[in-house]
DNA sequence: GCGCTCTTATATGTCTGACATATCGTCCAG
DNA sequence: CTGGACGATATGTCAGACATATAAGAGCGC
């Protein structure tokens, strides 16, 4: 576990160390506000220079995972400080064994809030160019047909193109969320169920509504699409467990 | 402009350089995929070592603002790659002169999507502890009364407490957005209009709805609150300008 | 014993200079 | 004109050193 997939590709040492440390933090290896090993110790442990460890620390601190203070050392930050929509944080959190089914449903829930609204905005604000991007992605989805893996790439492009068509810079930030969620779905789907083809009509409904600038229909169609996804994941992963909180909502 | 507010406090050199470079990038000083000055040149320009510049680069690359490749150099990334919900990115973008009224309205628009939904979730999922946090923030708001500056802190805490009460980790990521938007509002309000007191009843409506677990009412109340904020900003800042896009929506 | 100041050890922050490595241009040979 | 060799260049990594803030303990007066 000390040297996991550090040499998976042409990843720089800095990135590799950041990935391993980041994954450990989001996996809960270090409690909130607990000290992580010092720079010198980590540099020895990884056989790298202190420079590299420090640069990895900077990457992680920019993502809200750690904070350094002189003399005190570097501490893992509590979960509410993590940048949950950062692509790396999402990936590390989802990769760390799927010990967190609740997190998957939290993601789906946020998507169910954001993406229908995005579809509605796209219906109102799309241009020829941004609409074309959505249409291209959809066409590629149709071609990909029944292969769940091939299907994933145009699927992600489809949803990202809708975000881009909203003409709202902030909306783009949700691309990482969609991408991470779709990635999970692919892994789940490849273990269990059949072809992704049944979702094509649902995507088509979204595209059609956007094309004719029908914001309400776009909202509804996207909601339906995400509902299907949620039910699919629910069936394959199991219902979300009880909250991690001490006190549970009295319902 | 070369050495702006670099010594504003006890900011490390790394952070100061990252802040200045980051602000320059979001301000559009460097076009998308344009080279930023090399590490050695910047280290000379700032009178710092290359180490510090590199660590600043790591901070910025973790926020999606730049990307480095060997031999090629380091390039500013296009806007769609920026992590728009990162607190620093938001701050730099809003601080850079308010040359971007459209961005302020983009923020408000996203808040209008996320926060009502968050209020509804909080109504369903809050616990004794998370509800107490909301109530405390609200009480402090009432005390702050008519001072727009004093009002801002409990206001931010109020909205963040609602996000925390959703019992959804991903929701916490929107705290930075709320905080940034409220900061803008304070600056706008201090230049123009009167006391923030009129918004107290609107906040109270949100709190009451959450307390009695009425999700729909909480959604509506939060929407009303944000509507008021939006109209306020609109009145003081002016309507959003036309899109920056080449082709405009045909309407 | 209790509280205060002063010292000291420690971990991060910064600097320097060097070498490694990938890659973009260019140039030359076929 | 094509394709491969080669050097220049900017980032990536390394090593060792010093600076600085500060938590923790030592010492001291009360």
TrEMBL record, chains A, B:
<keyword id="KW-0238">DNA-binding</keyword>
<dbReference type="InterPro" id="IPR036390">
    <property type="entry name" value="WH_DNA-bd_sf"/>
</dbReference>
<feature type="domain" description="HTH gntR-type">
    <location>
        <begin position="11"/>
        <end position="79"/>
    </location>
</feature>
<dbReference type="GO" id="GO:0003700">
    <property type="term" value="F:DNA-binding transcription factor activity"/>
</dbReference>
<protein>
    <submittedName>
        <fullName>GntR family transcriptional regulator</fullName>
    </submittedName>
</protein>
<keyword id="KW-0804">Transcription</keyword>
<dbReference type="InterPro" id="IPR008920">
    <property type="entry name" value="TF_FadR/GntR_C"/>
</dbReference>
<dbReference type="InterPro" id="IPR036388">
    <property type="entry name" value="WH-like_DNA-bd_sf"/>
</dbReference>
<dbReference type="InterPro" id="IPR011711">
    <property type="entry name" value="GntR_C"/>
</dbReference>
<dbReference type="Pfam" id="PF07729">
    <property type="entry name" value="FCD"/>
</dbReference>
<keyword id="KW-0805">Transcription regulation</keyword>
<dbReference type="InterPro" id="IPR000524">
    <property type="entry name" value="Tscrpt_reg_HTH_GntR"/>
</dbReference>
<dbReference type="Pfam" id="PF00392">
    <property type="entry name" value="GntR"/>
</dbReference>
<dbReference type="GO" id="GO:0003677">
    <property type="term" value="F:DNA binding"/>
</dbReference>
């Amino acid at each position: 576990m000390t040297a996991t997939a550090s040499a998976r590709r042409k990843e720089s040492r800095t990135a590799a160390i950041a990935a391993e440390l980041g994954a450990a933090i989001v996996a809960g290896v270090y409690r909130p506000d607990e000290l992580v090993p010092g720079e010198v110790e980590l540099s020895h442990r990884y056989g790298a220079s202190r420079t590299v460890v420090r640069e990895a620390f900077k990457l992680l601190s920019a993502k809200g995972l750690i904070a350094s203070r002189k003399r005190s050392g570097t501490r893992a930050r509590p979960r509410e400080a993590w940048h949950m929509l950062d692509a790396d944080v999402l990936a590390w959190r989802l990769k760390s064994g799927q010990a967190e089914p609740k997190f998957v449903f939290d993601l789906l829930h946020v998507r169910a809030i954001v993406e229908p609204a995005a579809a509605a905005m796209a219906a109102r604000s799309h241009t020829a160019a941004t609409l074309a991007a959505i249409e291209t992605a959809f066409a590629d989805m149709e071609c990909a047909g029944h292969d769940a893996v091939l299907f994933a790439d145009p699927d992600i492009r489809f949803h990202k193109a809708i975000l881009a068509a909203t003409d709202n810079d902030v909306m783009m930030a949700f691309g990482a969320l969609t991408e991470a969620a779709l990635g999970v779905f692919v892994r789940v789907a490849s273990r269990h169920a059949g072809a992704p083809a049944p979702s094509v009509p649902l995507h088509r409904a979204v595209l059609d509504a956007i094309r004719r600038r029908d914001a309400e229909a776009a909202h509804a169609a996207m909601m339906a699409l995400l509902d299907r996804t949620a039910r699919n994941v629910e069936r394959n992963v199991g219902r979300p467990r009880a909250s991690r909180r001490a006190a549970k909502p009295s319902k």
